[in-house]
């Protein structure tokens, strides 16, 4: 096949790049122009897509230059001197200027590849046109280079031969997408019959036929679209990720696969390495093949790369966020949700592909048995079609009630406890497992929401033996291979021995207190089907691909850190989704144990069929984020906050706000200027005084209605002034006071005009068209123009304009009963009762006697409101009333017309100010906190007045956590005088998450300097907390200092001194897994401190931190993951 040498010419003098293109070939252009001020060479990626073009023309052979023009140094005229016919070809390309600026189809730039992740761009591309959603991708030239489909042909010659007979019309500029269509749903049930015609040579082949939703996603990946795949557990989301990785390898680019937890990253590394080979792993403590085309990493690592501008992301094509819903969890959030979900902010379509049904349907049961006699008490509650069976629920209730009745006859009326002890648990699980073995429904995952209960329940079943002799042999050999990498004493740890015994019997335990290597052993044996019963906490359901035949819930209640509550629908669905193995089980079984009483039907229905929790932004400002972004000139922190999902509700209408602002600007320019000369010279002031007076009165009334004394005064018989949409300054008397879910409701009899029909009864317009002083000052009461009538309405606190000093004696019940009776057609013409007539006459007499309103309760003197804003508001209101009464403009005959002109202009300007505020940074929800944190940094000397990051700020950027505290300890020289093992022990207080019994300061500390160090750390933390409080942050000093936990000081100290882990575990009641996690995080912190010490020129401290990290990194704590071997 002939080759073509194609130069890619950039807008400025750059190095041209030549390649021999194949279909889908990739060419890289290295620009020497600095980006973001860093001066790095940035690769631009371009697809050589040979689309038929009408401007390809034939050039005679003798016009081809003979010199090797790429070696020439002279300047080239890019308009006239370009080579248009490649050597050896008869036809070429005409480089004539085009009438439009639309990029060539098939052109792919790096900025488009990185657009969802680019932290260095503003919104300069907001006006970039985007193609219409849902249309055929190949029908028109896309406005964005990333949207072009890849050209496909058997050879380059075939493409060239097709050019002559093909003509393409000049494309039109695509229209912008309608509002709210950036997330485009895709019908995942629509068959893709032409899949293999559209993609004749897929980048990846499977041994099975992909499902419809997978084909839909693959088609969009081929078009280089962003996709959001929401599929049921085991539906095959990984297929989409595999195709993205295969595409990147085909295009010679890079893919990043992120997950919220390291365990899932390790598992995916093993899976993808077996499939693709060229796969790397980057986690906090492991770096394997960082140069690979596919990198598996946690979201923390990706965030760090984005902050530091790592070269890894320079040739990035795809970023895959796995288990993206876990960004709703405050404990595992890292990446801003806005960068993953709010693609609208970058005018990039994201295609939402979701599955309607599970590939393996689920059946949900209640189990009430607790003995061999009752092991058959399994009642269907929710079938595979989603139908809720009340019959099964009541059968479970009756079975439980019958057993409780027998229990009362035998042991008395005392009912058994709700949960029971270990003995009762053992009976329940023995009967359940016997039933499941009979029904061939093993393996089973039992979700228990306590580490201690997991261990107890597994230990209580050691009499069971669920494995065959061949399975025992396989388990034994696997354990030997895995544990051989541990030192001898570590292989004899009590947890290792106990877990080995359980595994030989087909039992397993999985929670955060288990050693990491043991958790991986359990996972691998479970995936092989050798663990028949697994007791696990809900973290097992987070992404680790370990489906089971059956899932059992030990309880439907959990402790969330503050209180016990029922499982949320999303939590239940996530864990229940582990039931059912695709291709093996026709249905999955989910069982809820009823150890005590059967839960309420409404609670079960809400948990199983309720609406899952909505995605909430967990974006939060941190000092590290602020300092990192302050160091980047091209991006402000405000820009980052705009892109966060927390700002999405307020920013989603930005385009509509911009359009409205433009329309209002046009309207304002077309308005006639009001004439404010002569007597009307004070007309603008009059208008502003009236607006301010109205706002001040509303503020005072709001305080009154929110006060205790104000609400007490609103009892039956109180006369009030009503002002709402139907009534303007009408007198009313309260008949009844009640409360709803949000506020109090006042049932009130109000005066109205009898001349109007019942459905039109009101007291005049809410506000006059042209308000005179009598309309603004005081209350110009409504008086009926004809015969007086009344109505009874329910008022909210905001409908009461004023509370008068008058109280009438009324019979509210009789009035309400009579009014309700006269609303019926049969009694509509009946005269009102005397109680009603008396109340109406009293209100009318008051209105006639006080046209400006009867005396009202003074908020300060009568209601005892001492709030400063109320007192100052009252003084200001009286001053405004005087100014309004003295205005001269109201005496001019031109006042009404000019007032209307001025009001229209002022209302438009006010609305424009509101829209500008919504579009500005000042409307950001997190902006006040940002200013407070910047003030903290400025007070501590991390940034100067101009916002430039100083040395202390650069040091804080190097810290992985507790950046302010660690930096202050460094600059206070609090660590340099300590030995490496003492530094490690002291810093454990910043990463420890366990809560051992007793005061850690009362435990036997190895050296007095450790105790002194703890006190010094707390003193520094207290000082930082006080600065935060002084700057307005909503965190008390006690809360900030309380984040430190020195419970593992002695454990870490002895570990750093070389104590074997087998002896270490006996020093604390903390589970072994949590100790390992603490030491691993501590080693990462030591590495951060080592880099910070080198940054400030502290070689002594740097050497000590290097030594401390080396002392920590040994034996079972840092045993390599089995997934990486």
Automatic annotation (TrEMBL):
Keywords: ATP-binding, Cytoplasm, Helicase, Hydrolase, Nucleotide-binding, Nucleus, Phosphoprotein, RNA-binding. It is found in: Cytoplasm; Nucleus. The keyword rRNA-binding does not apply. SUPFAM superfamilies: P-loop containing nucleoside triphosphate hydrolases. Its EC number is 3.6.4.13. One of its GO terms (cellular component) is nucleus. It is an enzyme of class 3 (hydrolase). Residues 460-630 form the Helicase C-terminal domain. InterPro entries: Beta-barrel_MTR4, DEAD/DEAH_box_helicase_dom, Helicase_ATP-bd, Helicase_C-like, MTR4-like_stalk, P-loop_NTPase, RNA-DNA_Helicase, SKI2-like. Residues 121-144 are annotated as: Disordered. The keyword Repeat does not apply. It holds the Pfam family MTR4-like_stalk. One of its GO terms (molecular function) is RNA helicase activity. It comes from the Eukaryota. GO terms for biological process: nuclear-transcribed mRNA catabolic process, 3'-5' exonucleolytic nonsense-mediated decay. It catalyses: ATP + H2O = ADP + phosphate + H(+). Residues 218-376 form the Helicase ATP-binding domain. Helicase component of the SKI complex, a multiprotein complex that assists the RNA-degrading exosome during the mRNA decay and quality-control pathways. The SKI complex catalyzes mRNA extraction from 80S ribosomal complexes in the 3'-5' direction and channels mRNA to the cytosolic exosome for degradation. SKI-mediated extraction of mRNA from stalled ribosomes allow binding of the Pelota-HBS1L complex and subsequent ribosome disassembly by ABCE1 for ribosome recycling. In the nucleus, the SKI complex associates with transcriptionally active genes in a manner dependent on PAF1 complex (PAF1C). Belongs to the helicase family. SKI2 subfamily. Component of the SKI complex which consists of SKIC2, SKIC3 and SKIC8. Interacts with HBS1L isoform 2. This is Superkiller complex protein 2. It comes from Saimiri boliviensis boliviensis (Bolivian squirrel monkey). The gene is SKIC2.
């Amino acid at each position: 096949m002939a080759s073509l040498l194609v130069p890619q010419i950039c807008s400025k003098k750059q190095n041209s790049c030549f390649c021999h293109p194949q279909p889908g070939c990739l060419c890289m252009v290295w620009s020497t122009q600095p980006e973001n001020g860093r001066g790095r060479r940035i690769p631009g990626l371009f697809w050589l897509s040979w689309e038929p073009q009408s401007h390809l023309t034939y050039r005679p052979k003798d016009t081809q230059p003979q010199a090797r023009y790429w070696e020439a140094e002279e300047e080239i005229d890019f308009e006239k001197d370009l080579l248009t016919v490649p050597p050896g070809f008869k036809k070429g390309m005409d480089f004539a200027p085009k009438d439009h600026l639309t990029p060539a189809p098939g052109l792919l730039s790096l900025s488009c590849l990185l657009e969802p992740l680019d932290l260095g761009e503003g919104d300069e591309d907001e006006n970039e046109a985007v193609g219409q959603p849902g249309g055929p991708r190949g029908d028109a030239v896309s406005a964005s280079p990333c949207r072009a489909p890849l050209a496909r042909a058997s050879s380059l010659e075939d493409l060239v031969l097709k050019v002559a007979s093909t003509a393409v019309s000049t494309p039109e500029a695509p229209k912008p997408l309608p509002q709210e269509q950036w997330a485009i749903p895709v019908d995942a049930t629509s068959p893709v019959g032409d899949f293999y015609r559209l993609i004749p040579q897929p980048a990846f082949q499977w041994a099975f036929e992909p499902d419809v939703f997978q084909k839909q996603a693959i088609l969009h990946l081929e078009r280089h679209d962003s996709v959001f795949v929401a599929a049921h557990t085991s539906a095959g989301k990984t297929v989409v990720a595999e195709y993205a990785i295969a595409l990147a390898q085909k295009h010679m680019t890079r893919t990043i696969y992120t997950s919220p937890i390291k365990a899932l990253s390790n598992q995916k590394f093993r899976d993808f390495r077996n499939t693709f080979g060229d796969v790397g792993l980057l986690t906090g403590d492991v770096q394997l093949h960082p140069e690979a085309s596919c990198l598996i990493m946690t979201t923390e690592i990706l965030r760090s790369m984005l902050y530091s501008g790592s070269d890894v992301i320079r040739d990035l094509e795809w970023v895959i966020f796995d288990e993206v819903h876990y960004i709703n969890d405050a404990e595992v959030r890292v990446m801003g949700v806005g960068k993953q979900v709010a693609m609208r902010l970058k005018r990039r379509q994201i295609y939402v592909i979701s599955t309607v049904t599970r590939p393996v349907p689920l059946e949900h049961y209640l189990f009430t048995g607790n003995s061999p006699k009752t092991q058959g008490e399994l009642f269907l509650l929710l079938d595979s079609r989603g139908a809720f069976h009340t019959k099964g629920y009541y059968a479970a209730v009756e079975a439980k009630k019958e057993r409780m009745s027998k229990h009362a006859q035998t042991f008395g009326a005392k009912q058994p406890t709700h949960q029971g002890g270990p003995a009762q648990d053992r009976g329940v699980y023995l009967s359940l497992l016997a039933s499941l073995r009979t029904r061939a429904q093993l393996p089973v995952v039992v979700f228990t929401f306590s580490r201690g209960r997991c261990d107890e329940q597994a230990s209580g079943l050691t009499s069971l033996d669920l494995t065959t002799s061949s399975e025992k042999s396989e388990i034994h050999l696997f354990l030997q291979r895995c544990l051989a990498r541990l030192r001898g004493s570590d292989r004899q740890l009590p947890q290792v021995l106990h877990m080995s015994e359980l595994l030989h019997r087909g039992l397993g335990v999985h929670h955060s207190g288990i050693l990491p290597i043991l958790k991986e052993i359990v996972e691998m044996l479970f995936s092989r089907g050798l663990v028949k019963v697994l007791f696990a906490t809900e973290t097992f359901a987070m992404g680790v691909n370990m489906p089971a035949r059956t899932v059992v819930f030990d309880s439907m209640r959990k402790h969330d850190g503050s209180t016990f509550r029922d499982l949320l629908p999303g939590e239940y669905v996530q864990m229940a989704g582990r039931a059912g193995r695709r291709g093996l089980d026709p249905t999955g079984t989910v069982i809820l144990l009823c150890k005590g009483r059967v839960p309420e039907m409404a609670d079960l229905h809400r948990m199983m069929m309720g609406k899952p929790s909505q995605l909430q932004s967990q974006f939060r400002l941190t000092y590290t984020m602020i300092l990192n972004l302050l160091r980047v000139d091209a991006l402000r922190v405000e820009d980052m906050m705009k892109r966060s999902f927390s700002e999405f509700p307020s920013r989603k209408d930005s385009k509509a706000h911009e359009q409205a602002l433009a329309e209002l600007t046009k309207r304002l320019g077309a308005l006639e200027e009001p004439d404010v000369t002569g007597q009307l010279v004070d007309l603008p002031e009059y208008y502003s005084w009236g607006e301010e007076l109205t706002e001040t009165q509303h503020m005072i009334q709001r305080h009154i209605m929110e006060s205790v004394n104000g609400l007490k005064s609103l009892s039956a018989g109180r006369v009030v002034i009503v002002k709402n949409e139907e009534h303007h300054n009408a007198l009313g008397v309260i008949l009844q006071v009640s409360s709803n879910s949000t506020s109090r409701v006042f049932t009130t009899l109000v005066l109205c005009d009898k001349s109007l029909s019942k459905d039109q009864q009101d007291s005049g317009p809410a506000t006059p068209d042209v308000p005179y002083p009598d309309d603004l000052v005081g209350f110009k009461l409504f008086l009926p123009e004809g015969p007086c009538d009344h109505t009874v309405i329910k008022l909210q606190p905001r409908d009461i304009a004023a509370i008068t000093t008058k109280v009438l004696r009324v019979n509210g019940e009789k009035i309400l009963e009579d009014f309700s009776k006269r609303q019926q057609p049969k009694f509509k013409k009946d005269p009102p009762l005397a109680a009603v007539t008396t109340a109406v006459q009293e209100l009318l007499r008051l209105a006639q006697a006080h046209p400006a309103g009867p005396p009202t309760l003074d908020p300060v003197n009568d209601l005892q409101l001492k709030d400063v804003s109320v007192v100052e508001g009252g003084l200001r209101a009286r001053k405004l009333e005087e100014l309004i009464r003295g205005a001269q403009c109201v005496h001019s005959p031109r006042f009404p017309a000019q007032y209307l002109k001025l009001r229209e202009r002022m209302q438009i300007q006010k609305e424009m100010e509101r829209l500008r505020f919504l579009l500005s940074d000042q409307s950001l929800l997190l902006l006040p906190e940002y200013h407070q944190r910047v003030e903290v940094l400025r007070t501590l000397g991390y940034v100067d007045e101009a916002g430039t990051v100083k040395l202390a700020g650069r040091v804080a950027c190097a810290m992985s956590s507790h950046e302010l505290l660690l930096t202050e300890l460094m600059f206070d020289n609090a660590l340099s005088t300590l030995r490496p093992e003492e530094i490690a022990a002291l810093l454990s207080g910043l990463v420890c998450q366990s809560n051992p019994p007793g005061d850690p300061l009362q435990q036997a500390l190895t050296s007095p300097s450790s105790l002194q160090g703890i006190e010094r750390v707390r003193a520094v933390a207290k000082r930082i907390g006080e600065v935060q409080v002084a700057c307005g942050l909503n965190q008390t000093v006690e809360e900030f200092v309380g984040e430190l936990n020195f419970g593992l000081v002695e454990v870490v100290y002895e570990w750093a001194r070389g104590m074997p882990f087998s002896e270490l575990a006996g020093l604390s009641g903390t589970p072994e897994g949590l100790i390992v996690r603490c030491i691993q995080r501590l080693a990462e912190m030591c590495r951060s401190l080592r880099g910070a010490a080198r940054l400030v020129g502290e070689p002594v401290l740097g050497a000590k931190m290097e030594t401390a990290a080396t002392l920590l990194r040994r034996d079972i704590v840092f045993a390599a993951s089995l997934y990486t071997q």
